[in-house]
């Protein structure tokens, strides 16, 4: 009987195969929430450096004793088993859970390439904003009001920098992304950097300086300047002080706004994931100030995700474009879009390095000031 029933289901297999991509999209948020909850509850941190692994009861105790986090043992086990299914943990026959290579490297707070800050930023801010995407498409506006009950004000960063906690969360998330993306991006620029041989490099709006430090690793004697808001510079100084890859005397941190304050003098300026954040009105203000600060013959390297020429891909950039819609009021562009954006301000396009094959695909777009 059961064999007959099993055979009968085969007739529906083509339909199930066809509908599966739709069902995966419908249920995709569940996977994100498993990741969000596990990072928030410090599940991966509780298993860090535990080569023998832990049972669920041992994890419950570790979370309470080390992080003051209370959990229900039966519910936690269901979360842990879902992490196993998502290949974020392993589970032995004796119900002992362990980190795998992926979670150990990217999901523990103290790992070098941790994405925990980006996970937290996505959970606490982006997920609620995306819940009102349809409203953004109807109005063309960011979704802070319907999602969080607050006005986005003049710009989204007034929300992301509204409290010390939000400043830390956003800075950590951008630091996490830079740690993953900066290496491949700078490596792609190595021949160009060796040819230009800049004496001074400035990272404009560079957060904690992760990208700037990667650049300085490629240039033995160049000086580096991190130009950031005064609210971010203490975090940047802490990170520069803690790192050991670059001589600290080669790095200086300067506070200021790229909308109104003159930029420090440099031969090459990096602007990583800056222009995509802003509305046309704010870009006019920003680029006017940049143009007035950058000397003739100096270079500006934009580092951005890029849309294809017809804007219908790659999907990772399309999704980031919608993220800009709900979060910042900005947008993603193609190389030609950035060429046209920069041209009125005296910047001539030198070339683009296509890094679509990497993740995250943040591409260097090089301009020279006429």
What structural category do the secondary elements indicate? alpha/beta
The N- to C-terminal Cα distance equals 80 Å
Mean pLDDT over all positions: 91
Q: What is the helix/strand order?
A: HHHHHHEEHHHHHHHEHEHEEHEHHEE
Biggest sheet features = 7 strands, mixed
What is the percent of helical residues? 40-55%
What's the total number of strands?
A: 9
**How many helix segments?**
18
Strand order of the largest sheet: 5-4-3-6-7-9-8
Judging from the principal axes of the Cα atoms, what is the shape? globular
Radius of gyration: 23 Å
Strand content: 5-15%
Uncertain ranges: none
Can you characterise this structure?
There is one protein chain. The protein is globular. It has 18 helices and 9 strands. By secondary structure, it is α/β, with parallel strands linked by helices. A 7-stranded mixed β-sheet has the order 5-4-3-6-7-9-8, sandwiched between helices. It has a two-stranded antiparallel sheet with strand order 1-2.
Question: Brief overview, please?
Answer:
The chain is built from 18 helices and 9 strands.
How do the strands and helices of this protein lay out in sequence?
Blueprint: H1 2-9, H2 13-26, H3 28-40, H4 43-46, H5 56-67, H6 73-85, E1 89-91, E2 97-99, H7 101-106, H8 116-130, H9 133-139, H10 144-148, H11 157-160, H12 164-188, H13 190-196, E3 200-204, H14 210-218, E4 223-228, H15 233-242, E5 251-255, E6 268-272, H16 280-293, E7 299-304, H17 315-327, H18 335-342, E8 347-352, E9 363-369
């Amino acid at each position: 009987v059961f064999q007959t029933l099993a055979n009968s289901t085969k007739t529906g297999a083509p339909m199930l195969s066809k509908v599966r991509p739709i069902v995966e999209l419908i249920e995709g948020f569940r996977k994100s929430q498993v990741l969000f909850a596990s990072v928030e509850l410090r599940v991966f941190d509780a298993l860090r450096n535990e080569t023998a692994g832990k049972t669920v009861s041992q994890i419950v105790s570790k979370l309470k004793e080390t992080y003051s986090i209370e959990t229900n043992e039966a519910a936690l086990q269901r979360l842990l088993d879902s992490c196993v299914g998502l290949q974020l943990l392993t589970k032995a026959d004796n119900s002992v859970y362990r980190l795998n290579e992926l979670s150990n490297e990217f999901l523990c707070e103290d790992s070098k390439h941790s994405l925990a800050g980006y996970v937290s930023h996505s959970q606490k801010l982006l997920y609620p904003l995306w819940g009102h995407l349809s409203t953004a498409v109807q109005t063309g506006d960011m979704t802070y009001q319907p999602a969080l009950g607050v006005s986005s004000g003049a710009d989204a960063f007034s929300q992301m920098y509204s409290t010390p906690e939000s400043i830390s969360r956003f800075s950590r998330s951008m630091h996490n992304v830079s740690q993953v993306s900066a290496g491949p991006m700078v490596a792609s620029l190595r021949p160009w950097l060796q040819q230009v041989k800049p004496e001074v490099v400035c990272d404009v709006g560079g957060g904690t300086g992760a990208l700037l430090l990667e650049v300085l690793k490629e240039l033995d004697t160049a000086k580096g300047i991190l130009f950031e808001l005064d609210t971010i510079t203490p975090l940047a100084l802490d990170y520069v002080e803690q790192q050991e890859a670059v001589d600290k005397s080669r790095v200086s941190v300067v506070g200021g706004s790229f909308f109104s304050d003159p930029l420090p003098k440099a031969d090459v300026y990096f602007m990583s994931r800056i222009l995509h954040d802003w509305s046309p009105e704010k870009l006019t203000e920003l680029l006017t100030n940049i143009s007035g600060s950058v000397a003739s013959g100096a270079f500006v390297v934009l580092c951005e995700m890029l849309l294809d020429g017809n804007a219908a891909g790659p999907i990772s950039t399309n999704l980031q474009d919608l993220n800009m819609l709900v979060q910042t009021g900005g947008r993603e562009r193609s190389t030609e879009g950035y060429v046209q954006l920069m041209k009125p301000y005296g910047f001539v396009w030198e070339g683009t390095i296509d890094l679509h094959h990497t993740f995250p695909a943040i591409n260097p777009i090089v301009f020279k000031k006429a």
